[in-house]
Amino acid sequence: MAALRLAVSNVILCLLLPSSSSSSSPICAARMQDHVRTAYHFQPAKNWQNDPNGPVYYNGMYHLFYQYNPHGALWDVGNLSWGHSVSGDLVNWAALGNALDPTAPFDANGCASGSVTILPDGQPVILYSGIDAERRQVQNIALPKNPRDPLLREWTKPSYNPVVPLPADVSADNFRDPTTAWLGRDGLWRFAISAVATGVGTTLVYRSADFLRWERNAAPLHASRDAVMAECPDLFPVAARGAEGLDTSARGPGVRHVLKVSMPDTLQDYYTVGRYDDEADTFTPDEDVARGGGDDDYRSWRRIDHGHLYASKTFFDARKNRRVLWAWVNESDSEADDVARGWSGLQSFPRALWLDPAGRQLLQWPVEEIETLRRGRAALLGAEVESGGLREIGGIAGSQADVDVVFEIPSLERAEGLDGNRLLDADALCGEKGASVQGGVGPFGLLVMASGDDLREHTAVFFRVFRLLHGEYTVLMCTDLTRSSTKAGVYRPTHGGFVDVDIEKDRSISLRTLIDHSIVESFGGGGRTCMTARVYPEHAATSSSHLYVFNNGSDAVRVPKLEAWELAPASVNVVPEQEEEEEEEEDGLAASSNMCTSSVY
Ligand SMILES: *[C@@H]1O[C@H](CO)[C@@H](O)[C@H](O)[C@H]1NC(C)=O
Ligand SMILES: *[C@@H]1O[C@H](CO)[C@@H](O)[C@H](O)[C@H]1NC(C)=O
Ligand SMILES: *[C@@H]1O[C@H](CO)[C@@H](O)[C@H](O)[C@H]1NC(C)=O
């Protein structure tokens, strides 16, 4: 109770103190730390989270499990549990107790990533990697203790685990992350899993008639000679036409497949569209998407996201007939900062994804439920942003917003020339040609999380059009973090990616950006190129953040339409007051700092 009273008085203190003095108040120091906490992205109330696990829609409820360290804000593999939350709308979440803790011999050193599959009788099953008492990675199942509990609160790990022990040719620490299982024509279940088998990085397939006894298929689903271990594989069907999602077991004409892996060496997610042979259980990438290196190097595949986003995982949402992607977005300031805040890691806002009409790549888009959070709206209609122009989009909270804008390009004549070699490293190109480097057609885009004074702090999300040697055009998208924070030692990279559009024909390009205090998620060209960035601006501790449209190209660009909405905070894993009262004073402080943040935005 004492803690709660303290919490309440903190809120008042933070609000009453003028911003200049609040930074010197010891109580508001806690709040200052937590201007980083998000308002509508998925986070547990405290502690470390990483990979999304077992996302599923079951009995009218969305479930998200996640890699969770219940003991602190840093990664601690031996203590990894499965946190568990439920939602009716993918936006507001209620926290339940952990679904899995490392308590059995077959997961004594950690409950690593995995999936949920719903069997034909309606029974959900967790399939996950345990790190066993001998530190081997093995595959286990868990079942709901009470299948009639609509929230699936408690899970039982049968003592006959592991259902798949470590194979003789696989190294002990390279066998993990089973996918959601799918049912073949022959009535057998299959799941895919990452492994290093006889020294080769592969994605293996296991088959089973009863979900208990699993047999490895001799041929791997896919093998990569160049890259060693991949992790968090995901194999899922997409409709050749249209945005509707498909059940993981869907097959037949009009169904294509996507294979995605996460590469620990680059900490990036890669995918390709291809053909899954459901008899041989092999996957062959389409030729035209295996760009750059050979198709056996995952790192030459397309990126799920060109910023920092990892360990993504999709599920089929039968409620709205769509496929939805979750992914972990890590912190990029210091571990000391994470410990001080008491938490680390976000999930990206859930994205619907589908195949683009040309069949070459995925399109990703925030799920429409985000619109339920929209409050105030600001708009710009039929505006022209001249060379060097900067226009503020006022009237909404710039730190909690959803911005959707279309840029029209009157002329491509002054596009800068670009050597084809430069297509290989978009990050470097964005680093060289940042927002303040004037160009021909672009840079134009948004300045977000900008300080009100002199733009001392701002994050730029923008496009730049280049003309290649043979005369065709290419569009570069960048998120430039070099001025995102004035704090010493903060990671401030430039993220870049090309957008696969025909700008000569379209003469326009769209940008959607979700801003949430310390995360900026951008979707260029209708979700063709996605870019997630973490930002830690100092000004946000004590003052509001601003939003602008800018153009630093030599020609004007037109903005036929820009809409920006302020987003209300979602209710994400809020700790009920009763529990909070029982917590120690320190936790009371952390909780109060959230309240402060949400009232200051
Ligand atoms: C798990 O957490 C506990 C409590 O913080 C700690 O004592 C223990 O060393 C951790 N175990 C491992 C394997 O890291
Ligand atoms: C997390 O952030 C750092 C920057 O601090 C980055 O270099 C790293 O690759 C990221 N890790 C993951 C798993 O995304
Ligand atoms: C545009 O370019 C000028 C000149 O380099 C620079 O001062 C200004 O900061 C740039 N604008 C942005 C948004 O970077």
From TrEMBL:
Residues of the Glycosyl hydrolase family 32 C-terminal domain: 370-566
GO molecular function terms listed in the Swiss-Prot or TrEMBL record: hydrolase activity, hydrolyzing O-glycosyl compounds
InterPro entries reported for this sequence: ConA-like_dom_sf, Fructan_Metab_Enzymes, Glyco_hydro_32, Glyco_hydro_32_C, Glyco_hydro_32_N, Glyco_hydro_beta-prop_sf
Keywords: Glycoprotein, Glycosidase, Hydrolase, Signal
Region ranges (Disordered): 573-601
A Pfam family it matches: Glyco_hydro_32C
Lineage: superkingdom: Eukaryota
Cleaved signal peptide residues: 1-22
Residue ranges with Polar residues bias: 591-601
Biased composition, class Acidic residues, residue ranges: 577-588
Gene Ontology biological process terms in this record: carbohydrate metabolic process
Record keyword Hydrolase present: yes
Record-annotated membrane-spanning stretches: none
Annotated ranges, domain Glycosyl hydrolase family 32 N-terminal: 41-366
Xref: SUPFAM superfamilies: Arabinanase/levansucrase/invertase, Concanavalin A-like lectins/glucanases
Family note: Belongs to the glycosyl hydrolase 32 family.
Protein name: Uncharacterized protein
Lineage: Eukaryota, Viridiplantae, Streptophyta, Embryophyta, Tracheophyta
